[in-house]
Amino acid sequence: xxxxxxxxxxxxxxxxxxxxxxxxxxxxxxxxxxxxxxxxxxxxxxxxxxxxxxxxxxxxxxxxxxxxxxxxxxxxxxxxxxxxxxxxxxxxxxxxxxxxxxxxxxxxxxxxxxxxxxxxxxxxxxxxxxxxxxxxxxxxxxxxxxxxxxxxxxxxxxxxxxxxxxxxxxxxxxxxxxxxxxxxxxxxxxxxxxxxxxxxxxxxxxxxxxxxxxxxxxxxxxxxxxxxxxxxxxxxxxxxxxxxxxxxxxxxxxxxxxxxxxxxxxxxxxxxxxx
Length: 275
Fold this sequence. Notes:
Layout: H1 3-13, H2 20-32, H3 36-41, H4 49-63, H5 68-72, E1 74-77, E2 80-83, H6 96-104, E3 111-115, H7 121-129, E4 134-139, H8 142-155, E5 160-164, E6 176-181, H9 214-222, E7 227-236, H10 242-252, E8 255-261, E9 267-274
Parallel strand pairs: 3-4, 3-6, 4-5, 6-7
Antiparallel strand pairs: 1-2, 7-9, 8-9
């Protein structure tokens, strides 16, 4: 079977996906260890039996709902190619809003802390843009921390380090110029938990008590103990949580409290300055 034929059949098989052709191209590129441009150039190339068998298996797993990022083990974020695993959230384009906001308030040098770092996406994106900053990423499990470290090494980003910590537990007395986090913020009963890629992602990285607000409120409460004067806290949250997060920030004593919208127009990131 040729590359073109395999892609055509796979796209038909993936009709239930919002991006059937793209999914097929990404998976076949992965199987052939080539980029997608190569697929367009060599559409008449015959796939080997091994390549075709692997591709068909991946397509069937995708039909079952498994995220493409878990099938390939890779996801692009902020132009960086990141290794992924089923133990972490898949980096999403909307989270680039958090990186943009953090960069906008960052000076030439300083120290940033990314809590719940996962693949290291936010920390590494920021570190790649601000090489004079010292960036620290923290997560609950050593498995996740090891993945973030591997991503930093693969990308050659030397100003980012990662450690295991339950939020601020492993960093008593440490202070930063900027703290960012994309914490769990989905309620236990949210219907989205049973849909699309979210079904396969770790619930511990998605779900929080208090209608999804528990982790957000904890970070707002504890962050001032780790912020220098004039430093900023920025949090990603659910599409309907911005007002509650702004209220919590204001009550805690943060100044210049604001929210910013994601690619879909939803208020997705809120934060403020600690003075």
